[in-house]
User: Fold this.
Amino acid sequence: MSTEPRINDRIRVPEVRLVGPSGEQVGIVPLAKALELAQEYDLDLVEVAATARPPVCKLMDYGKFKYESAMKAREARKNQAHTVIKEMKLRPKIDPHDYDTKKGHVVRFLKQGDKVKITIMFRGREQSRPELGFRLLQRLADDVQDLGFVESSPKQDGRNMIMVLGPHKKKTEAMAEARALADARKAERQGRTPGSDAAPRTTTRWPRTW
Assistant:
């Protein structure tokens, strides 16, 4: 079944409640009169409320209306934020360098507005020392508290311990900031021309000897 409204000659009712091009209420008029006004204004008669009694119709440029609606829908999809959960795995006895590297990834994910699932993997005798994993998760949460918060507290899941960090910044805000930064960098690059920072070239003219 088509979801598009009926327009012009496809409207098959004896009378309609007519709305003018600027949104003004014209009132209930015969369908023939409404079609006549549409031709007079060089517009379309569009049924905007088919279930009303009588149906509500509006005078508009339907082609322009469809184009603008499609552009708005496209912009909405472009700005739509999809929640993404990233995952980072650590060992209880991780060395400082690896910890800093893993923490850097977590910081990047949170800045992008994504959630991060932190998994501590226990092996062998490490399973009898869950407090090591808990302390490591607590340390990481403290280190990134300016960017995120503990959305799901640490809990044991078999051989693993899991914690979920949520970003303070919404995904849409992160996307907007990233676009603004990219636009600023692009504008900065376009504002520079080759050799613009070079010293002005001077030419020495020697007096003629003849």
Notes: Residues 97 and 103 are 10 Å apart (CA to CA). Confidence is low (pLDDT under 50) at residues 193-200, 202-210. DSSP finds five helices and eight strands in the chain. The beta strands are 15-19, 25-30, 44-49, 56-60, 85-90, 115-121, 148-157, 160-167.
